[in-house]
Write a structure and sequence with these properties.
The chain is of the alpha+beta class. About 60% of the residues lie in helices and about 10% in strands. The strands form two sheets. It has a six-stranded antiparallel β-sheet. A hairpin with a 2-residue loop joins strand 1 and strand 2. Helix 9 crosses helix 24 and helix 11 runs antiparallel to helix 12. The two termini are about 55 Å apart.
């Protein structure tokens, strides 16, 4: 290849990205191969990217560490900037994971240790990588680690996100604070290193999903997926390191990358378990090996220590409850109630005693009513009307709404008064028994035309009305449940609303209506999430923002929408800063309109208070303004 960049002879293209091209090249003066990174024409059009390329490459060039790729030179050829750096013969961690390369567990531990040592060195120099991922970890043929893209990771990420839509490979290694768009420090690189450690061991990512929004949600809110195979059960150090490095709260992560590396090195010094060669997926483990139990706390819930054991229950209450439960099982409700009342005398607020007492009292009342009904009907058949009447009156004292007792009471009174409507009432009852409710209603109405106050006829009419309404209600409820199962939520809502006009407080109908409305909302939200994910992947952040904003209006507690909106808001803010930096401040500076330059820079600082370019602009404009 005849292409030449600076003093370097280009040999081949190693890779191409959204803002740059990486070449393998030859340095004829020092007789060595190098890697050359240059900016594409698209990147050159953006003065902000060009300026950052220079500034951040210089910062990376100051790093000298065995596990960080060495920067040889920052230069420019035909107005195109380039970085010459160390060329590493070998592969990268991405290839190792993708090809499931057979390496020992010890080697994987040592790869991570080297990564952490390199990161720690950079952190001490005040540089945070921000884009640690497998493809940025180069491996020599003897598995020496070299970290790539120090200093330009933030630039590459910003460009990728705003021009080509979000790249899932990068997102899956981001820390929760990066996603939220808040302050990022060394703890963010530690989180990314924890993800890579998990992936090297399992050959899969700890926060996997089939769409962007779910990945972001899991990174911010959910614990890692269980390891398969469960290597963390065989090696407690793995569980401890992952638990601590992948904590959602940066304050609870390792204090430094060195601290995390020290944990791993200490384990290697004290065990020879990892010396056997083999893929992580074939590691044998013993489920009986004791391991420390680590529980991931739910998102947003802090683990609390109890101040001591709960107060012991009075042993007398324990004994009384035990006796009551045995009596209930044996069918001795009265004796059980006696024990429960004694327990409540000792502790009136005891919840178990209260609940059991209520249950037993209701059972006793039901038994009493059943026995009185049996006796009353028996007396009625024997024409002992006065005794039957007393039985039914006792029932109505216990439960005034007992329909059967009311009907039997009226039958007694009718017999005692020798009514003239016995034939019509008998026909009404027969029709009711045959479920011919409309015919039964006709006979009852005929009775009431003759005697509007005939109690038994009124009672039967009320029962018939309730039965007809109950029948209609049951049909509507059944229809609503069928439509709900078929996910025809709108049709289900119509049927259930009609049912609730009959019985407005019916708990099952109310619950089904709530389910149908939730289903309608859930379907709409799922459609919006699909639409929003598609827009995110296309880089249409404003359209995606509107989709997730609509979700939040429907469900103000939707954590996925909140998190994605915060993420998009940060990206839109970055884009606005870029646009402001390209609004032609150079022309204003050349025209000596320094106040306009200062206004633009100050607006940038309201969006990005730490923006060094805006601070420099203000200083330059004020300096020039002072020279006029």
């Amino acid at each position: 290849m005849s292409l030449k960049i600076g003093k370097y002879d280009v040999l081949e293209i190693l890779g191409r990205g959204g803002m740059g091209v990486v070449y393998k090249a030859y340095d004829p003066i020092l007789d060595r191969e190098v890697a050359l990174k240059t900016m594409t024409s698209e990147g050159l059009k953006d003065p902000v990217l060009r300026e950052r390329f220079y500034r951040e490459a210089r910062a990376a060039g100051k790093l000298r560490h065995a596990n960080i790729v060495t920067i040889y030179e920052l230069g420019e050829e035909n107005n195109v900037p380039y970085i010459a750096m160390e060329y590493i013969h070998g592969t990268d961690v991405h290839h190792l994971i993708r090809m499931r390369t057979e390496v020992t567990m010890e080697t994987k531990f040592r790869i991570l240790i080297q990564l952490l040592r390199g990161l720690s060195y950079a952190h001490k120099a005040g540089i945070v990588h921000r884009d640690i991922k497998p493809s940025n970890i180069r491996l020599s043929e003897d598995y020496q680690v070299k970290i790539l893209d120090f200093g330009i990771a933030r630039l590459v990420t910003a460009q990728t996100m705003t021009t080509n839509g979000m790249v899932l490979g990068t997102i899956q290694y981001m820390s929760p604070e990066q996603i939220r768009g808040v302050h990022v420090d060394r703890k963010s690189d530690i989180f990314s290193a924890g993800i890579i450690f998990y992936e090297m061991l399992c050959y899969r990512k700890p926060f996997e999903a089939d769409n962007t929004a779910t990945i972001l949600y899991k990174l911010v809110h959910e614990p890692p997926d269980p390891m398969v195979p469960p290597i963390d059960e065989q090696f407690p150090v793995v569980k401890r390191v992952l638990f601590k490095s992948l904590d959602k709260d940066p304050a609870r992560r390792y204090f430094s990358a060195d601290e995390m590396a020290d944990d791993l090195e200490e384990f290697l010094r004290t065990t020879a378990t990892l010396a056997q060669t083999g893929k992580a997926t074939t590691v044998e483990y013993d489920r009986n090996v004791p391991t420390e139990e680590i529980v991931y706390p739910p998102p947003g819930v802090e683990q609390k220590q109890t101040d001591g054991p709960r107060p012991a229950t009075d042993p007398r209450i324990t004994d009384l409850l035990r006796t009551a439960r045995r009596m209930i099982v044996d069918g001795h409700s009265v004796q059980a109630l006696s024990s429960l009342r004694e327990a409540l005398n000792l502790e009136p607020t005891n919840p178990e005693a209260t609940n059991l007492a209520y249950m037993v009292e209701q059972d006793i009342k039901r038994s009493e009513v059943d026995e009185l009904l049996r006796q009353g009907q028996e007396y009625l058949r024997e024409k002992r009307y006065d005794i039957a009447q007393k039985a039914f009156e006792k029932i109505l004292k216990i439960n005034p709404n007992n329909t059967k007792a009311r009907m039997l009471m009226e039958a007694v009174r009718s017999e005692m008064n020798d009514p003239n409507f016995e034939d019509l009432l008998t026909k009404a009852k027969n029709a009711y028994g045959e479920k011919k409710y409309q015919l039964a209603m006709k006979y009852v109405e005929d009775v009431l035309k003759i005697s509007p106050q005939q109690h038994e006829a009124l009672e039967i009419m009320q029962v018939l009305k309730e039965r007809l309404l109950s029948q209609e209600f049951s049909e509507l409820l059944q229809a609503g449940e069928n439509f709900l199962r078929e996910q025809q939520y709108e049709t289900a809502i119509k049927a259930l609303e009609k049912a609730l006009k009959i019985f407005p407080q019916h708990p099952v109908a109310l619950k089904r209506l709530q389910d149908a409305k939730s289903g309608t909302q859930r379907t709409h939200i799922e459609q919006l999430i699909l639409m929003g994910n598609k827009q995110l992947e296309l880089g249409n952040f404003e359209d995606a923002y509107r989709s997730f904003e609509e979700i939040l209006k429907m469900d103000p507690k939707n954590e996925t929408a909140k998190m994605v909106l915060a993420y998009i808001g940060e990206k839109l803010r970055v884009e606005e800063v870029k646009q402001l930096l390209n609004t032609g401040w150079r022309i204003f500076m050349m025209d000596k309109q320094y106040d306009e330059v200062i206004r633009i820079a100050e607006k940038i600082l309201t969006l990005d208070p730490s923006n060094g370019e805006a601070v420099s602009l203000i200083q330059s404009a004020r300096k020039e303004k002072g020279d006029v």
